[in-house]
Design goal:
Oligomer: single chain
Keywords: Signal
Strand content: under 5%
Order of helices and strands: HHHHHHHHHHHHEE
Pfam families: DUF6683
Number of domains: 1
Number of strands: 2
InterPro entries: DUF6683
């Protein structure tokens, strides 16, 4: 029995980066979608805000923060991330979307509404790298395997994810960097969920989506979600 290496499959700097395929640009996932200047500006803006300082003090008082990797979300940075993802969506995933204009859904905050609802439904923390990563992996596993996870299984994935991320280089990233990493995961997750809804009436279309999600996760994370089951320990090899 072996557990999926969460520290190796988290998005961004934690991925095992290999040769990019013609369909998925691994560099986008590994290096982030915004330039360092945008992240620095967001960090400076957060440092100048009294409200942000108060929020940071409150956040540090929460004992689960070390594992959850919370950040104080910047609305301006969210808009920049959404715009960047919308422009490069076809490079980030190979899913051939049947929904009408997925980029428009991203740019108009449609994906934001979807992933916030999904985080709440599954009891995962918002504005948290661990919460975003757990949702990305859980939804990806469900779509790739065509099976729903229980609340207990989702909670196990979160614990496994949080433990792995806490030991990773991402645990030392700035708030804007954590936000970028988180929101890329969440946007793609929301698009997968909306696409699954659009295809829900066609078994063939649902299978095509399952295969595309599986292939993209293999390309991005170097893990085959169909090679894992989910136990009380999280992802465990079959």
């Amino acid at each position: 029995m072996h557990l999926l290496r969460i520290h190796a499959i988290a998005l961004g700097a934690m991925f095992l980066v290999g040769p990019a395929s013609a369909q998925v640009n691994i560099g986008i996932w590994g290096n982030g979608i915004l330039g360092q200047s945008a992240l620095r500006n967001a960090q400076e803006a957060a440092g100048q805000s009294a409200d942000d300082e108060e929020a940071e003090t409150s956040a540090r008082a929460r004992p689960e923060d070390a594992a959850a990797l919370f950040f104080d979300r910047s609305g301006d940075l969210t808009g920049q991330i959404e715009e960047a993802v919308a422009q490069r969506l076809s490079e980030m995933v190979s899913v051939r979307f049947q929904m009408e204009d997925p980029s428009y859904l991203v740019k108009t905050a449609g994906t934001r509404a979807i992933y916030r609802q999904e985080l709440a439904k599954r009891g995962l923390p918002e504005d948290s790298l661990s919460g975003a990563t757990a949702l990305f992996l859980a939804v990806g596993w469900e779509l790739a395997n065509g099976r729903a996870l229980s609340d207990a299984q989702t909670a196990a994935i979160y614990r496994q994810t949080a433990s792995g991320l806490r030991q990773s280089p991402l645990a030392r990233k700035s708030g804007p960097e954590l936000q970028q990493e988180s929101e890329i995961r969440l946007i793609i997750t929301a698009l997968w969920l909306e696409e699954a809804r659009v295809r829900s009436s066609s078994s063939r279309s649902k299978q095509d989506l399952a295969d595309a999600v599986r292939n993209d996760l293999k390309e991005i994370t170097r893990n085959d979600m169909r090679a894992y089951k989910v136990t009380e320990n999280g992802f465990t090899g079959l």
